[in-house]
Each structure stands twice: as structure tokens, then as C-alpha cells.
Design brief:
The complex is a heterodimer of chains A (about 260) and B (about 220).
Chain A lengths: L14 E2 L8 E7 L3 E2 L4 E10 L4 E8 L6 E5 L5 E2 L8 E5 L2 E7 L1 E9 L8 E13 L2 E15 L8 H9 L3 E2 L4 E7 L2 E7 L10 E4 L11 E2 L1 E2 L4 E6 L10 E7 L7 E6 L3
Parallel strand pairs in A: 3-12, 13-21
Antiparallel strand pairs in A: 1-2, 2-4, 4-10, 5-9, 6-11, 7-10, 8-9, 11-12, 14-15, 15-19, 16-17, 16-20, 18-19, 20-21
Chain B lengths: L6 H4 L10 H12 L18 E3 L5 E3 L8 E5 L5 H8 L2 H10 L4 E6 L11 H11 L5 E4 L4 H6 L3 E2 L2 E4 L5 E5 L18 H10 L14 E2 L3
Parallel strand pairs in B: 3-4, 4-5
Antiparallel strand pairs in B: 1-2, 3-7, 6-9, 7-8
Classes of the chains: A mainly beta (about 260), B alpha/beta (about 220).
Amino acid sequence: MHKSMIVAIGLTQLTWGEETAGGHARVALAVSSSTYQAGKTLQAAVSIEYEPGWHGYWVNPGEGGMKTEVKWTLPPGWTAGPLEFPVPHREMTGGLSCYGYAGKILVPVRFTASADARGDVQIQGRLSWLACNDKGCVPGEAELHVKLSQGAEQPAADAEIIRTACEALPQRDEKIATTVVEKDGNVKIILTGAGHLDLEGAEIFPFTEQALDPGSPILLKKSVDGFETTVKKNEYAKGRIEKLDLIVAGPGLKKALLVAWKQKG
Amino acid sequence: MSIALTMHQLNLKQKNTMMTAKNMFTALVSAVSLSISANAADVGKPAPEFSAKDAKGAAVSLAELKGKVVVLEWVNHGCPFVAKHYGSKNMQKLQETYTAKGVVWISINSGSKASGSFTDNEAFLKLSSEKGSKASHLIADESGTIGKAYGAKTTPHMFVINKDGVLVYNGAIDSKKTTEPADIATSENYVAKALDAVLDGKAVEIDKTEPYGCSVKY
């Protein structure tokens, strides 16, 4: 076990997690305000910085890998939303295709204070992840913690970068319609109504595990109906694909898209 | 990946036939281009043949194991997913339970020297003994021939072969894709279920799952 190098990553008023137990990453919990209001939501973010040469995984890790998870210990009555991961990228670990991250990422997460919350509180979390390179994998675990006091919102030093991270999250576009057709072991995905967007060469990242084969990048091409791609069905798919939740991201897109499709009937 | 395989390692059926250099090259290229994502080991079909020397120098061949139920376990003790099952003694218990029922359990390390995950026979024996492995055989599959024949992707990656040499399970050891030993107790162990079924003459219900683990380092 070795200590990670301290790297200036732009988080100022953060609380670093304790020394990580392996994991080749430095993690921390940042808040947009060090004060909370009862019954209201507080925007925070988990910062994960993987050491050079190592990468971690998205919610759909692809083949192999392991998703990053957190177990929160919250004050009574408080709730936490899900970790909202940024757009991943696709890479190979040995012979396996995976979806994940290298370098530093900020993962927005929201906490909602209980209606009768009062005084100083502490939020704790146990983050667990897997970092891999071509030679092997190392699991990581770290405690995240932040102290909050009750009071009017005061933007903390990290408020700005957390806001930027939130804005970069994929978002739904109500104008876009999705069709999914299965045929001969392949899955064709067609997006229509996206004429106002440049989706040529945009890449699809599926949240939904074991639906699409991750063996190659899933890239959209312009077609008669809009933009489409055909990808092999995941060999572990159980029967017909009932739903697909996707991220669409590409150089022509200012904001990544969130696409949700469900089988009709 | 080195293509400098020797004639000895090619393990061709036509070993005794005179081969031209061109034939050798073609066979070599097709052997190394076998993608690990090809459906090399299909459930319901005869399991791919292999023969090798185990870490003690004994000859092991699937053909000669007809009449026995066989488990293939891809292993790499440097992998945290393997450590999950060995540190908790989960894997050793499975090995012990089922070898006692006549199952032949073969632990295989498909790792080349170039990839850094090769373990020589002596080291493999020592490490396995230290971990309390109850496997019947250990095979250091340095060339990756057996791994690629089966499409072994991760460590662990588990295969169950019935007495007739048919592959009846291909996939993960259990249902939770984590490195956390505490998850074992609440996971469904697909290998135990498959073995119980096949030893009982019943069909294996869950015969294919996505294996989880570190990538096999060919």
C-alpha cells in the first residue's frame, strides 16, 4: 500500500477521505454549501481521481470491472439521491471492453435534509470501487465525510465546479423519439426528431447492462429516418430487450443526451 | 502476443504429418487469431478438447476424463475477485465438496510471461498449497491454448462439463459482481447448482451467465 501523491485538483473546501485502502485513487466529498436548510436539497459531488495508468468503472462497467458504489450514513430522516456519473468512455482492459474513467471525475449527488433537521450534522459514506490497468485490478475503499451546519445557503468554494459537473450530466431531449428493433442477433437503434442536433459519429453508452455488446464502440450514423446504429446483442441478454437506457455523447453535441426506451406492450 | 510458438507448443493433430512452412504459418495464424469473444465453448455442445501436463507433470486430457464430471476454474491469485473466493475459503470448500463426489476439478492459469501473470509449475503448486486449494489438477496454460479454446475471459471463469464431455455451464461462479467476500453468503452459487444438477442426472437450469473478474492476461 502506498500513499497517493497529493495533486492539486481544484477542490478547495473539500474534506479528503481518509487514506485509501489501495484502489489507486484519491477520493473526496465536496459540497456546494457548508450549510443546509431543513427539508431542502443540498448539491454535493464525490470527487474520484485515479492515478495515471489506472481506470475505474461506470454504472455499467462492461465486461469485467466493477461498478463504483457508496453506502451513506446519514443523519436521521435525511436521504441521498443516486451517484450521477459523468459520460464515461470506452476502453479495453486486457481483452475485455469496459466503460469507465481515467484521471479525475466529479460525480454529483444530492442530499435532502429531513424536515426537522437542526444544528450541526455529519454526512458519511463508504465508497468502494475497482481500479484496473492491463496488469491487474485493485479494489479501493474510502470513507467520505462532511460536516454541515444549519443555515442559509452560502456558496462554498466548490460550488462552481460542482455546478459545472451537474451541467455536463446527460439530459433528456423531449423532441427525440427512439425505436429499437431486434433482428438476427443484432439490435438496431434509431433516433428520430433529432434534426436540430449533430449526432453523426456520436457514441452510445448503455446504462442497461447485458443488452448491447460492448465489444466495439456503438456509433450513430445519419440515415433516412434520423440517426441509427446496429450493434450485436449482448450474448448474456435474457430474452427480448425490454428497456434501454442510454447516454449519447459526441463531438457535435454540446450536451450529452439521456435516452430512455421501453418495449411497448 | 508472441507468435514465436515452437512446433512442440502447436499441439497439432497432424503432428506426425510432414508440414510445409506455409501450412505451419497458416495454422499458427489461425491459432493466435482465435478471439476470446468467439463462442468457443457453447453450452450444450461437446466441451473443447485439451491435453496438457499439470503442475506435477502428470498428463491431463479431457478425452480421458470421459465418465467424470469436470470443473474448469480459471484462476489468478493476484486478482481481487479470485481473492474474494479464496480468502473466504469459498472456492476451497467447493473444491473439497465436489471432488469428494468424484468431480475432477482443474484450476487453470492462462497467463503468458509477457503479460506478467504467468506462474510456473513450482510457484503454482506452492501458491495453491498455501491457499489450501483442493483442486485435482493445476495447469499453467502459458500459451493460452486452453483458455482461448474455452473463451476464458476473466478470473474466475467457471465451466462445468458432464460425464459425456458436454459443456453444461459456462460463466460466473456466483451472482454478485463484486470483490466483497461478505457478498458470497447472499449470492446464488451457479457452479454448485450446476454440479448438483448434473450429479443428480438433472438438467442445469442456469447454464450460462456473464463471468466476472479480472481479465485473463494472455
